[in-house]
């Protein structure tokens, strides 16, 4: 039996680009109604949760993905609501600025609170739970558990609606979909860790799944096989959608003295590296690593759409120019051979 997976990367506001790609492919193939599973990380986790919920609720998925794109474009100020920091944090920010170390939210505290993101998420999935997702669908959402009661240390975690028989702690059927989306999107320094509780169970705090797999395609494949939705890799086809290849690097000229590179330089505070360079590095390389491993096992049954961006678009950059760059990247991928391959595969679903 064939298993058809749609996988959405993390990338903050660049989830808008993911939505454009989904919109374009949906117009040509109506594939969202035929997919067997949705996998997501971070902003892609929010999209995947909304799609899995939409399918389960019988929603018009073409209208849903259009609605999602509108939220990214029109509600970004709400999504990225500035965190109200303490007086001590604000004072430290001023000291950092005085000595030209940057300062600002994200250095002394989370840059944004999650209240705005929660408001948008609630309009999409209400108070429905993981258990409300149709068992005919596979939902796989990456996050990181910062503390587990049943073992020492933090752990990568993929939230799923499938019963994998792994014990009661891993049963998240009573957890709200909104909590899953917020946990997957809790990017360190950008959003605060997210606490999940449900039916008297305290699951602890969670952080962004992009810290270990910003591209969730392999996690979706893993859940599909573990849930006996596919007997082997040869039965799986996957569409992997990225949030744009960033023209970001750290040149020899930027580094100068490598012994000097501590945390402040890696975050672009006391160097010419892009602001938050360390986070971007982890997310980008994680996504590409996952793709190449998935490509090795699925071969031509995996198609990835991840167009190059003309200029850097930060995880929370939502000025008009950022959307213009993503619109341009979308137009470029639509004219590519990869797009034609994707359309050909999806028409066979």
Shape: globular
pLDDT < 50 stretches: none
Name the CATH architecture.
3-Layer(aba) Sandwich
Compute the average pLDDT.
Answer: 91
Structure summary:
With 349 residues, this protein is α/β, with parallel strands linked by helices. The protein has one domain (3-348): Cytosolic phospholipase A2 catalytic domain.
Write the layout of secondary structure elements.
Layout: E1 3-8, H1 15-29, E2 37-41, H2 43-56, H3 61-74, H4 76-79, H5 87-98, H6 115-125, E3 138-145, E4 155-160, H7 177-184, E5 194-198, E6 201-208, H8 210-213, H9 217-226, E7 236-241, H10 252-255, H11 263-266, H12 277-298, E8 302-305, H13 320-334, H14 337-347
Parallel strand pairs: 1-2, 1-7, 2-3, 7-8
Antiparallel strand pairs: 3-4, 3-6, 5-6
Helix pairs in contact: 1-3, 1-13, 2-3, 2-7, 6-7
Report on this structure:
The protein is of the alpha/beta class. It has a single domain (3-348), classed as 3-Layer(aba) Sandwich (Cytosolic phospholipase A2 catalytic domain), CATH 3.40.1090.10. A hairpin with a 2-residue loop joins strand 5 (194-198) and strand 6. The chain is built from 14 helices and 8 strands. Strands 1, 2, 3, 4, 5, 6, 7 and 8 form an 8-stranded mixed β-sheet that branches. The protein has helices at residues 15-29, 43-56, 61-74, 76-79, 87-98, 115-125, 177-184, 210-213, 217-226, 252-255, 263-266, 277-298, 320-334, 337-347, and strands spanning 3-8, 37-41, 138-145, 155-160, 194-198, 201-208, 236-241, 302-305. The model has no long low-confidence stretch (mean pLDDT 91). It is globular.
């Amino acid at each position: 039996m064939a298993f058809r997976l749609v996988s959405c990367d993390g990338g903050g506001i660049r989830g808008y680009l993911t939505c454009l790609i989904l919109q374009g492919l949906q117009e040509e193939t109506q594939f969202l109604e035929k997919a067997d599973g949705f996998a997501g990380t971070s902003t892609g986790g929010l999209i995947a949760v909304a799609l899995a919920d939409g399918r389960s609720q019988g929603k018009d998925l073409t209208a849903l993905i259009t609605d999602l794109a509108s939220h990214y474009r029109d509600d970004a100020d709400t999504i990225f609501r500035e965190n109200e920091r303490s007086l001590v944090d604000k004072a430290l920010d001023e000291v950092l600025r005085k000595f030209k170390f940057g300062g600002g939210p994200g250095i002394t505290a989370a840059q944004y609170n999650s209240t705005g993101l929660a408001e948008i998420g609630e309009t999409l999935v209400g108070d429905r739970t993981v258990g409300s997702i149709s068992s005919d669908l596979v939902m796989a959402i990456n996050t990181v558990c910062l503390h587990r009661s049943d073992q020492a240390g933090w752990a990568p975690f993929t939230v799923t609606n499938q019963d994998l028989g792994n014990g009661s702690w891993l049963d998240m059927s009573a957890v709200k979909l909104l909590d899953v989306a917020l946990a997957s999107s809790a990017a360190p320094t950008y959003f605060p860790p997210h606490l999940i509780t449900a039916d008297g169970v305290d699951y602890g705090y969670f952080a962004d799944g992009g810290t270990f797999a910003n591209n969730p395609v392999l996690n979706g494949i893993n859940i599909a096989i573990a849930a006996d939705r596919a007997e082997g890799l040869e039965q799986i086809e996957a569409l992997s959608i990225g949030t744009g290849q960033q023209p970001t690097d750290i040149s020899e000229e930027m580094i100068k003295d490598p012994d000097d590179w501590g945390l402040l330089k890696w975050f672009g505070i006391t160097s010419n590296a892009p602001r938050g360079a360390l986070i971007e590095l982890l997310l980008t390389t994680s996504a590409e690593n996952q793709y190449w491993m998935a490509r090795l096992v699925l071969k031509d049954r995996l198609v990835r759409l991840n167009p190059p961006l003309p200029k850097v678009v930060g995880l929370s950059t939502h000025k008009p120019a950022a959307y213009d760059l993503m619109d341009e990247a979308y137009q470029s991928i639509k004219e590519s051979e990869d797009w034609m391959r994707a359309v050909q595969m999806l028409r066979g679903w």
